[in-house]
């Protein structure tokens, strides 16, 4: 099973936790427009409890005319040798294989829109042309991470949406196109936590307890679907179209902040990617949404101030519930919270209300907080 090459990774920043009681002491009242965070249902609550994440970024790739203008994403260019990648061939990640003008990649007359990540059908210097896009932010800690994707129907590639800190702290959603069998309705999805145990096994997590192979009830290459993982304090939950696929717990769950990666590659490894593909293969991503707590301690005071210096008592405005995306609205991504800026297409982030300019509102690196606690603050209960 493949893992990232450590030398090509940025390191994440330190971890800091703010307790619920500390948040209550700092709160005075709420700021409108999700200033105190974004919530999901608490998987451990039978009484409608929620978990709150204080930061977010969203990208609607269907509205982003030029990927080079993105504030959130960086196209990567690097090489991995056949030996380092444990494959028959090397991997050549190229910026030119990533574009939001995907018509130049399409040969089937498709009207799909979004970000295209291409794997080339012809070798270049004994390496397979591949594609990788990384988030600029590397402080993504506990959170809910979602991507709308349509995979390739071409045999012999690995398409992945994952979170990464290092080779032993990694959360993966991976599609191996060679495994799909439309005649028998077999569409496996590989869910992986890379851990010290998987590293000792040659980055093969299958026998470590941190791997699940789930058969999807739909063909992921036929339409867009949302794939999601919730990285919480003691577990990682995996979803497709908001339906739970797996719940992984234990010491393999990461403990730090990292960054998001979209990748599409092949190296001829018959036990994983297979291939190389006989022709160009395309992974299409229409959006990514990230709702999270930052692991950077330097942003703590800024986010707390944004939540506490308010002029409203409307709890629903202060903490926004993240809507579930189903197969019916995965093509559009449903609701986006961030306003879109003129000339920069489909990237949203919170507004700085003092000057009206759009700017990133950094997250408080807090523990998982219940919305009830925030509501008490907003209603003047403390």
Commentary on this structure:
This protein is mostly beta strands and 382 residues long. The chain has one domain: Jelly Rolls, CATH 2.60.120. It is 10% helix and 33% strand. The chain is built from six helices and 21 strands. It has helices at residues 20-26, 82-85, 196-200, 300-308, 315-318, 371-378; strands at residues 37-41, 50-53, 55-60, 73-75, 78-80, 90-93, 98-99, 115-119, 127-135, 140-150, 158-166, 169-176, 188-194, 211-215, 225-231, 235-240, 243-249, 259-265, 281-294, 319-321, 347-348. The strands form three sheets. Strands 3, 7, 8, 10, 15, 16, 17, 19 and 21 form a nine-stranded antiparallel sheet that branches. Strand 16 and strand 17 form a beta hairpin. Helix 1 packs parallel to helix 6 (371-378). The protein is globular. The termini are far apart. Residues 3-32 and 350-382 have low confidence and may be disordered. Residues 1-32 form the signal peptide. GO terms for molecular function: hydrolase activity, hydrolyzing O-glycosyl compounds. Keywords: Signal. One of its GO terms (biological process) is carbohydrate metabolic process. InterPro entries: Beta-glucanase-like, ConA-like_dom_sf.
Largest sheet: 9 strands, antiparallel
In DSSP terms, counting alpha (H) and pi (I) runs of 4 or more, how many helices?
6
The helix/strand series, from N terminus to C terminus, equals HEEEEEHEEEEEEEEHEEEEEEHHEEH
What is the C-level CATH assignment? Mainly Beta
What class would the helix/strand composition place it in?
Answer: mainly beta
DSSP helix fraction: under 10%
Q: Assign an overall shape.
A: globular
Give Rg in angstroms.
21 Å
N-end to C-end Cα span: 51 Å
The count of DSSP E runs of length 2 or more, i.e. the number of strands, is 21
Number of spatially distinct domains: 1
CATH topology-level fold name: Jelly Rolls
The CATH architecture assignment turns out to be Sandwich
């Amino acid at each position: 099973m493949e893992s990232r090459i450590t030398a090509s990774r940025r390191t994440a920043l330190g971890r800091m936790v703010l307790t619920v009681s500390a948040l209550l002491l700092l709160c005075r009242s709420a700021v409108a427009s999700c200033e105190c965070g974004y919530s999901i249902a608490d998987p451990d609550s039978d009484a409608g409890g929620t978990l709150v994440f204080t930061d977010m970024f969203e990208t609607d790739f269907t509205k982003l005319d030029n990927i080079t203008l993105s504030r959130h994403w960086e196209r990567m260019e690097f090489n991995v040798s056949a030996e380092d990648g444990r494959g028959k061939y090397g991997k050549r990640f190229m910026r030119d294989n990533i574009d939001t003008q995907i018509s130049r990649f399409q040969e089937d007359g498709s009207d799909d829109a979004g970000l295209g990540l291409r794997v080339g059908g012809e070798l270049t210097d004994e390496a397979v042309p591949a594609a990788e896009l990384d988030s600029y932010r590397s402080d993504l800690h506990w959170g809910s991470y979602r991507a709308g994707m349509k995979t390739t129907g071409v045999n012999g590639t690995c398409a992945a949406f994952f979170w990464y800190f290092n080779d032993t702290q990694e959360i993966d959603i991976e599609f191996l196109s060679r495994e799909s069998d439309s005649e028998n309705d077999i569409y496996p999805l590989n869910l992986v936590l890379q851990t010290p145990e998987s590293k000792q096994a040659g980055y093969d997590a299958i026998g470590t307890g941190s791997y699940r192979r789930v058969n999807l009830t739909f063909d992921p290459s036929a339409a867009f679907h949302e794939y999601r993982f919730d990285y919480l304090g003691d577990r990682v939950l995996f979803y497709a179209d908001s339906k739970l696929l797996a719940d992984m717990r234990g010491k393999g769950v990461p403990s730090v902040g990292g960054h998001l990666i979209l990748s599409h590659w092949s190296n001829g490894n018959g036990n994983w990617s297979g291939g190389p593909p006989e022709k160009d293969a395309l992974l299409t991503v229409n959006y990514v949404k990230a709702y999270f707590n930052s692991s950077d301690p330097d942003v703590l005071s800024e986010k707390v101030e944004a939540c506490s210096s308010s002029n409203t008592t409307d709890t629903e405005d202060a903490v926004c519930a993240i809507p579930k995306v189903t197969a019916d609205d995965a093509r559009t991504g449903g609701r986006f919270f961030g306003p879109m800026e003129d000339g920069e297409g489909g990237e949203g982030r919170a507004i700085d209300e003092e000057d009206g300019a759009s700017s990133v509102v950094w997250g408080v690196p807090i523990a998982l907080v219940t919305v009830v606690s925030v509501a008490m603050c907003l209603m003047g209960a403390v």
